[in-house]
User: What shape does this take?
Amino acid sequence: MIPPRATCRRRSASALLLSLWCVAVLSITVLAVARMVLADVDDAGLRNRRFEARELALTGLAYGMHPKIEVWDPLLDQRFPDGSRLRVRVTSEGSRFDINRLLKERGQRTLRKLFEIWEVPRPDIPIAVDSLVDWIDPDDLKSLNGAEREQLQNQSQYSLPANRDFRSLAEMEKVRGMDVVIATKPDWVKYFTVHGGRTLDLQEAEIDVMRAAGGVSREQAQQIDLARLGPDRLVQTRDDVKIKSVGDFLGKIGLPDIVRDAMASKFSAGRGPTRIESKATVGGTDYTITVIMARAGSGGGEPTMLDWEER
Assistant: This one.
């Protein structure tokens, strides 16, 4: 027979173990709830910062869309006392190659020249160009080095041809052969658009764009670039030279007549849509709104919105 005192000690030990177990479970529960609350607080804080950053980006967009704004205006680059920042960049979308126009050019000479300038491996250039052509052409006939649906059915890394013009640069990215181009030229996106015109805007055209479209040498393209920048040699500042006539501008900087004629047939001054990129930073959270718009013509009217992207 177990003495009563031993029985009491066993019951006390069991009660102590049970109490400790309950305390442990309660502690774990409290910690879990605390973490959930903190996560909710963090999510709410992130949502609030994103909301504030978006509102600030929309303000910057309104600045950039104003017809009288200058690209160097201090309103477009502001720092605020609370640490927030607003940066708005207004550039010419017309200075980029319209990929759909390039692919409809006879022999795609300009696009091939651009890839050569970028030093894309020579065997890969016809693959990329012909695959891009096959992606937009209305038929299912494969180009010499291209690929249609039949050839791409089992190659999931590439998109199937849509037999229409590209509607965004994101569609270009998955075309067969573009992986090699992108590996060679990671910033390829800034050279293309789907909202371009018949001619390119010389005011902001990249050096490689001038070389590929105008047939000028690297040295001549750099000469044009320096002449546009003005005395301070900085981009988008008050002393930038505003090009009013391509022929007159190229003549003033001393380029030969043959170069001027070739450039004047491919380039214009201040034409094409405008790209406005408004980036706001609030509490370490970034929010960017990019808009492409065709400004109203000399006859007045409202600008036309061509594209809107938020990220």
Residues 13 and 19 are 10 Å apart (CA to CA). The radius of gyration is 30 Å. The chain has a mean pLDDT of 89. The chain has eleven helices and nine strands.
